[in-house]
UniProtKB/TrEMBL annotation:
Pfam families: His_kinase, Reg_prop, Y_Y_Y. Residues 765-843 form the Signal transduction histidine kinase internal region domain. It comes from Chitinophaga arvensicola. Residues 740-767 form a coiled coil. Keywords: Coiled coil, Membrane, Transmembrane, Transmembrane helix. InterPro entries: Bact_2-comp_sensor_kinase, HATPase_C_sf, Ig-like_fold, Quinoprotein_ADH-like_sf, Reg_prop, Sig_transdc_His_kin_internal, WD40/YVTN_repeat-like_dom_sf, Y_Y_Y. Residues 653-714 form the Two component regulator three Y domain. This is Two component regulator propeller. GO terms for cellular component: membrane. The chain crosses the membrane at residues 722-744. One of its GO terms (molecular function) is phosphorelay sensor kinase activity.
């Protein structure tokens, strides 16, 4: 939607005397090039039969539905881009008066001109059309700038023979029963018709302005504009019903418009609004100062459209005539208002603003300003409270003042920093809420509270409630201590305002809506869930007759105090200047609403509500990369992966951004409706078939419109026919059969390979088993047992033999499994190392280091894969040393592999190889090659890649450290 600019423009009311007074303001909306208008200079405006507003500009025409402009130029079918006037006939055609004089019109989404319609062929002789008239049978007569009559009869465009006999504009106007004018007014240099000597011409209106006969006469007949006067014109008489000079208008009138009892006058310098002119009222409002008004239009909804030369189009929504507005452009100090009240005795409206300014407006709408708080910094007028006789209490940021509405004198009652609220008890006792204190004027003060006091409400002359940012409190003049109130519900609640109404306390909060309390208990809670405008309450105002007004940051909510129900919400959508409401005041039927953008006042019971559903139309259809004109039936051959989009629109000039759409593609008008705010309805990859698309819309507070339906027929391609699909199905089945056969054969081959792998693994495990437990270890272990027996160490020998047997049994059990747990592997290695320590006379120590992350899971690894590495470290690294050695086994998780390092401080890999016998070298090489082959076979099954690396620390940059570091990455199975 184009972003509308709202401009508040005000004027002076000119009376017949020199006396002037300030008038109410009107909210005027401006549309310009940035909103989509074809040009900032607009010559004319017209509304067509469907409801669209058309604008004529020097660069083409603009068609407007309230939200979007659709622009047409010469490339779109216009005969010329310079369109000077427009006319709409009863058949729905919009005629374009272009500078080249060639006739053209818009009908059913197409611009008709001589290029596509032979009936419009015409030699204009460079004279363009000025006026248009419609006759019977749809004939159109034009009067061009050469004062010639041109006729269009649907078959041809010709110079009419009437023109050859001397017929002119007077002739067309005189015979208005035959020629119906398609424009509201005519510009003439003289009223005298040379062919009508019987016509009476009068410069004085024969009717009183408030005579209904006058308005009927003016509405039903042509209006002639002569310089700055308006005449009602018939063949019998022409009389002046408006003389601009009598109203202070000296400029020539460019256009006029009649709106019910009101008269609008446009000139080259300003726009004039004569409110109640045909009721005899003498009030004139000057608007759009220094604007050249080119035309005026009242649409069928009552909105006023003003076109200008160079400043775009202005619009005044019909409902804004029910409101009056005040801000800094028509009398107030600024646009921001903090408080509002009225001294009914003196009939004086009081308006509090920033800078300590109090504005007053009397019954004659005279506005005066008084500076109350002159301190620096914040000094806004926050509260206005009626007191006694002619006196009003005025609370500002820095003090409490008394303002006498009769004498207009001000006096300071008490200087108070950060004053928040003022309340008067039934007996007239004044209490003040300010920052962190409560003040009973001329009595006592409760100070230095550890909370922010925001509001106060008196129950009686001696008891009252206090609202704070930390909850609700109760106090009496006797105790002078704040006591928590409202039980647990009101603890920690941030309170903005309080009102005591007929035995109930109404609590407005800063973020939780409204609470209603009776006898210290909450009996009702109202929030946005109950249709409250917002949960952020800024002020509560009770009108004394059963209605509570809640000012919020999203409008005003009206609450019925008796039923405790929200009866209505009033927002900017209804005509307020802003939704940020600071205060409310009701005076009989007039409601005053103070906002951050000005004051709005109106009859609260007569706010217009537009419940008529909007007019919905189909704009265009997009299928794939192509765009098609609107039609009730769309037929197209299927496009693969092409998106079908239908773009709709509504003709809504008031709040077009709140229009909702519903669409249904099932053809069922009772079910399946989808609601959206978008006017583009997409259907990606729409399959072949017949569909019925139904769309309806509703605007703010209206019902749903009648559904607009469109038939959509997507034709299938040859391969989407039943016979083609049958062939494709058979081919697919054959292909599936071949595929299944291939897959089964691959599965059988995989099973065969798996069997072969298992066989090889079994062989390798057998090899590993024979290599893991070195026969020398078994032989030497038995020698150790023999030595212990000879040394009479029978008990130690028996223990050694028992551990040796357990180790052998554990080795045999593990060799039968593909995976064992890491705990089992560590237990096996520990038992093995303990036996090796005994066998080698405790010539080395060992240590296991295990990462904590490994303890969170149960880790399974291939058996007998670490032990050969440990054995090599002891036998070829530590055993040849002359001193005690150290062995470290580290276990960590790296990605999804187990990292194991066997680190010894022995003689080193290279030195060990140099002193080994050929038998030992062969044994070791076989053991390590078996480990590598096992890792490779495991990779072929589960894809995990193992790794084995042997590092001589002395040669590999470990400083002067000797020994060997063996690193191995082992594929694992991890379970929680």
């Amino acid at each position: 939607m184009p972003l509308n600019r709202f401009i508040m423009l005000w004027g002076l009311v000119f009376f017949c005397t020199v006396t002037t007074s300030l008038a109410q303001g009107l909210m005027i909306r401006n549309y310009n090039v940035k909103d989509g208008l074809a040009n900032a200079t607009v010559y004319a405006a017209v509304q067509d039969k469907d409801g669209f507003i058309w604008f004529a500009t020097p660069t083409g025409v603009s068609k407007f539905d309230g939200k979007r402009f659709r622009n047409y130029a010469k490339k779109d079918g216009l005969t010329d881009n310079e369109v000077v006037k427009l006319a709409a006939d009863s058949k729905g055609r919009v005629w374009f008066f272009t500078l080249n004089g060639k006739p053209s019109f818009y009908e059913k989404s197409v611009i008709h001109s001589e290029d596509n319609d032979s009936s419009l062929l015409f030699n204009s002789r460079s004279h363009y059309m000025q006026y248009a008239f419609e006759g019977q049978g749809g004939y159109i007569w034009f009067l061009n700038t050469n004062n010639r009559i041109v006729q269009y009869n649907g078959k041809q465009t010709i110079y009419d023979k009437l023109g050859a006999s001397g017929a002119d504009l007077y002739f067309l106007m005189r015979n208005d029963s035959i020629f119906h004018p398609l424009q509201a007014s005519f510009h003439l240099e003289t009223l005298r018709d040379p062919n009508n000597s019987l016509q009476q011409i009068s410069s004085v209106c024969p009717y009183p302005l408030d005579d209904p006969t006058l308005r009927t006469r003016v509405n039903e007949n042509a209006v002639v504009i002569m310089r700055n006067t308006l005449y009602s014109y018939t063949s019998k008489e022409a009389f002046c019903f408006f003389n601009g000079a009598e109203w202070g208008i000296k400029d020539d009138i460019s256009h006029m418009c009649i709106d019910n009892d009101n008269l609008w006058i446009g000139t080259q310098r300003a726009l004039y609004f004569l409110k109640g002119y045909f009721r005899g009222e003498r009030r004139i409002i000057r608007l759009l100062d220094n604007h050249f008004i080119t035309s005026l239009l009242k649409d069928r909804d009552g909105n006023i459209w003003i076109t200008t030369f160079g400043d775009g189009v202005y619009n005044i929504p019909y409902k804004n005539f029910y409101f009056s507005y005040l801000d800094n452009t028509n009398g107030l100090y600024s646009h921001s208002i903090f408080s509002i009240s009225k001294d009914k005795k003196n009939d004086l409206l009081l308006i509090g603003q920033n800078a300590g300014i109090l504005n007053t407006m009397d019954v004659d709408n005279q506005i005066r300003q008084y500076t109350l708080d002159t301190t620096s910094g914040r000094n806004s007028v926050l509260s206005i409270t009626p007191h006694t006789n002619d006196n009003v209490l005025i609370g500002t940021d820095n003090g409490l003042y008394n303002f006498n509405a009769l004498t207009r004198k001000t006096s300071l009652l008490k200087a108070v920093k950060m004053l928040k609220d003022v309340d008067v008890s039934p007996g007239g006792k004044i209490r003040i809420a300010a920052k962190n204190q409560v003040i009973a004027l001329d009595d006592y003060a409760i100070s230095d509270l550890d909370m922010l006091v925001t509001s106060i409400a008196s129950i009686s002359d001696s008891t009252y409630y206090v609202g704070t940012n930390m909850g609700l409190y109760f106090c009496t003049d006797k105790q002078r201590t704040l006591v928590p109130a409202g039980a647990d519900t009101m603890r920690k609640v941030s309170i903005k305002d309080l009102k005591w109404i007929d035995g109930s306390l109404w609590v407005g909060t800063s973020d939780q809506g409204i609470y209603v309390m009776q006898h210290d208990s909450v009996v009702k809670h109202l929030s946005t869930a109950n249709d409250l405008a917002s949960d952020i309450c800024q002020q509560l105002y009770y009108d004394g007759v059963g209605r509570l007004y809640v000012a919020t940051n999203h409008g005003v909510s009206v609450v019925d105090v008796k039923t405790r129900r929200i009866t209505r919400n009033i927002t900017s959508s209804d005509g307020l200047m802003s939704d940020d409401i600071r205060g409310v005041y009701a005076d009989h039927d007039i409601l005053y609403i103070a906002t951050s953008n000005g004051l709005c006042y109106f009859n609260a019971d007569h706010i217009p509500v537009d419940t008529i559903p909007p007019v919905i139309y189909l704009n265009n259809i997009r299928y794939g990369d192509s765009t098609f004109l609107s039609s009730q039936r769309f037929v197209h051959l299927y496009k693969r992966k092409a998106s079908f989009e239908a773009e709709f629109g509504t003709i809504v000039f008031d709040l077009p951004e709140l229009v909702e759409y519903q669409y249904n593609f099932s053809g069922d008008s009772t079910n399946g409706w989808v609601t959206t705010m978008s006017n583009i309805i997409p259907f990606p990859d729409l399959q072949p078939g017949n569909y019925t698309l139904m769309v309806r819309a509703r605007k703010y507070k209206s019902d749903w419109s009648k559904a607009l339906s469109m038939e959509v027929n997507i034709l299938p391609r040859w391969y989407q026919q039943w016979w083609a699909r049958g062939i494709l199905l058979l081919a697919a089945l054959l292909l599936v059969g071949v595929g299944l056969r291939y897959i089964i054969r691959r599965i059988k081959q995989a099973e065969k390979r798996k069997t072969e792998y298992n066989r090889r693994i079994a062989e390798l495990e057998a090899k590993a088993l024979t290599n893991q437990m070195n026969p020398h270890f078994i032989f030497n272990s038995l020698n150790s047992v023999q030595h212990l027996i000879l040394e009479k160490e029978e008990k130690q020998a028996l223990n050694f033999l028992a551990d040796f047997a357990t180790l052998m049994r554990q080795m045999l059990n593990n060799s039968r499994k593909s995976y064992i747990s890491l705990e089992e592997e560590i237990a096996f290695l520990t038992r093995y190392l303990e036996l090796e320590k005994i066998r080698f006379a405790h010539s080395f120590t060992y240590h296991f280091i295990m990462e904590d992350a490994l303890k969170e899971y149960t880790i399974y690894i291939p058996p007998m894969i670490i032990q050969p590495i440990v054995e090599n470290a002891i036998k070829h690294g530590l055993a040849p040393k002359n001193i005690s050695g150290y062995l470290e086994i580290r276990l960590e998780m790296v990605d999804d592999l187990l990292y194991c390092s066997v680190d010894d401080d022995g003689i080193g890999w290279d030195k060990s190889n140099s002193i080994k016998s050929s038998r030992l070298i062969k044994h070791e090489s076989t053991a390590l090659s078996v480990i590598k082959e096992r890792l490779q076979i495991i990779k072929s099954f589960n894809g995990s890649v193992g790794k084995l690396e042997i590092i001589d620390k002395f040669k590999s940059g470990f400083g002067n450290k000797e020994g060997t570091l063996v690193e191995i990455l082992i594929p694992i199975v991890k379970m929680l």
